[in-house]
């Protein structure tokens, strides 16, 4: 079995509060714009955290059969729609001739929480016989991958990873490994979440994980001294991965080549990161080893950068430990400053941005960076995009349970 096949990304399908589709998503990022706003999906008045990154103007019937959409939770609708965007972006049609070699690995950090809350309320108010027969398939996390496979006739490997906020990155990294090992030629990979619900905001809020700021445009401020928690957001990020040979054969646009993937666990705490960032350090080192590159070869890091006091400080510490003095020469930024934290979709949306940075040589900024923090003293590309040549980039994703995933991509020069 060939373990050395080169893997590239040929399609990008993002959906988040900053827009639907690659063009609007990328334009908002490089312009430093945010659509984080007051919650409208329910009345946030009694909740300590009242802001979120909601996807606006999303009509499922623009992307799928209306009847079929009614049998999907919102997170699955996002995933199916983002897949269509990614396939169109890749100019890829899945025919019967290739369907057995096209796999799907799309995860969700939380799954159908919207459906769970809705159906629970129906049961309490109207009785168990009123619960929808579609409740269970709408709830379970692997239904995003399942519907994508059914709708687009992808009959290769099909499964789901659930690793909290590292989900999207793990799905991409494992898809990269599947193609390298020859188990598929094309993978539809990424993550999706739609967890802006009363229970979710209550739970994250009572953990003291969410911001208490009521200023939507200033609430998310990664690495800034006045950060006080993350902004819950929703959306999906789907990428089309395929062999370099296959991409070249069909003359596809290549956004970049995936060259490294590292993953591990902190083995420390169910929600808090290791205080020394030792797990993050090791994951970055594993990815560098897989890519067969030195720390000094990296030009840019797309940080996990959640805007929580602990994460940003510990991620900074981990970067400094791995890269040494060179860490101060690296450009680092957090997309979450503009799109919020999309949970299971975050790693995929952020890796999409990382690939566009490689292609366009533009690094999106970390907005709302105003008050320097002595514990976060690196170059976070504050407030304005940076135009500079980027050849190799790292994308970090870390999740509850102490799970870590790091992806490395390289500019493709033909």
Report on this structure:
- The protein is of the alpha/beta class and 414 residues long.
- The chain is globular, with a radius of gyration of 20 Å.
- 56% of the residues are buried.
- Helix 7 crosses helix 13 and helix 10 crosses helix 11.
- The longest helix has 16 residues.
- Strands 1, 2, 5, 6, 7, 8, 9, 10, 11, 14 and 15 form an eleven-stranded mixed beta sheet that branches. Strands 3-4 form a two-stranded antiparallel sheet.
- The model has no long low-confidence stretch (mean pLDDT 97).
- It folds into two domains: 243 residues, Thiolase/Chalcone synthase (Peroxisomal Thiolase, Chain A, domain 1, 3-Layer(aba) Sandwich), CATH 3.40.47; 149 residues, Peroxisomal Thiolase, Chain A, domain 1 (3-Layer(aba) Sandwich).
- Strand 14 and strand 15 form a beta hairpin.
- It contains 13 helices and 15 strands.
**Regions with little confidence, pLDDT below 50 for 5+ residues:** none
Q: Please give the count of helices.
A: 13
Gross geometry: globular
The first-to-last residue Cα distance is 25 Å
- Look at the helices and sheets and give the structural class: alpha/beta
| Beta-strand share of residues | 15-25%
Task: Please tell me how large the radius of gyration is.
Answer: 20 Å
Q: What level of helicity do the residues show?
A: 25-40%
Order of helices and strands: EEHEEHHEHHHEHEHEHEHEHEHHEEEE
Provide the residue-averaged pLDDT: 97
Here the CATH topology of the largest domain equals: Peroxisomal Thiolase, Chain A, domain 1
Tell me the number of structural domains. Answer: 2
Number of strands: 15
